What we know:
Layout: H1 8-32, H2 62-66, H3 80-102, H4 116-140, H5 145-161, H6 168-174, H7 182-203, H8 233-260, H9 262-272, H10 275-305, H11 312-325, H12 327-351, H13 360-372, H14 374-386
Helix pairs in contact: 1-3, 1-4, 3-4, 4-5, 4-11, 4-13, 5-10, 5-11, 7-8, 7-10, 8-9, 8-10, 10-11, 10-12, 11-12, 11-13, 12-13
Amino acid sequence: MVCITIPDGLVIAFLFAIGASVGSFLNVVIYRLPKDLSIVHPGSACPACKTPIAFYDNIPILSWLLLLGKCRKCKAKISPRYFIIELLTALIFVSLYVIYFMIPMRRGVGEFFGNGAVIYLAHIIMLSAFIAASAIDLEFQVIPLSICWIITAVGFIASAAGSFFYDPVIIRSYDIFPTASAKVSILAAGALAGLIVSIILLLTGIIKRSYYSMESDPKLSSIKEKPEENYNHRLEMLKEVIFLLPVVIGAFAAFKLYKNVPQFADWWIDFSQVPVIAGLFGSLWGYFIGCMIVWVTRILGTFAFGREAMGLGDVHLMGAAGAVLGFWPVIVAFFIAPFFGLAWAIFCMFFRKMRQIPYGPFLSIGLFVVMILHDAVMNWLQFVLYR
């Protein structure tokens, strides 16, 4: 693949501008998605006086500063969140480029104007979506499932297509994209079969949806708050355990088939180790592990304390991250996140009153830290697991 040489300073300036523009779009998502409004139409307007915002007042970062955080017409204050999201997104775009291609702290990614653009694009889409999900979680204590599904789809597509841009040996050696051995692939395939069974049982009403009411039906809105009802939380978690049983049974049954039927095992090894298939199953396994580590914590925490522990949005968020990054990074990020949550809890104790601490932003920070320190984290894991 032909690589183009462009000065890093010019690339950084370009990515900063693109990141700020993406941040401007994320502000639209953050404002409109919780209200079930279209993110496409109508155009941006002042929330107070509803005056459409002119193009010269809609320049990311600069317009907020030049207008001193106020509407040009009615002088109503514009939330500093708009400036913060645009600046943060721009800095994330730049920092990921610096970390992957300038320092570089991650080996094997290649050149930015080459195959490296593929991993950069997949990861920057995930991080941008995490910014939007975290901002919504901070304000509404809920994570839109639609955002998580978009990230998951990006993970599946990038992992499956990765072998068209990278040598499969490079992908495995440097953990560029999730990939799976034959054993992991059969576990992922069995879990997928079990998930399909669970969804069918759920849709037919044979098993019941947890925390369900007409107002909280996710078909109506993925982020609408559950009505205040006196749920038996342990009973609701039992419904979720029943939903997960076919997934576990499917993975176990598929693995037993692989171990006990040599003819099937030989065919499966040949099939599953085709690079595209291995990448897809690696992403799928990362999704299941990301979901499972949070879901198990949610279930055990609810059984232990008698109240809902963590949200299903967190489950889908970590599943989406696993689809993009693979299962080991999300496991490490899950255990890093509580330290950021503890720091925030201490801050809230002294400076602001907050009954509920949203966990999505801390999971996102933990994942970003693991991405920055990816090679060090993976080397440490290899030392711990294989010493």
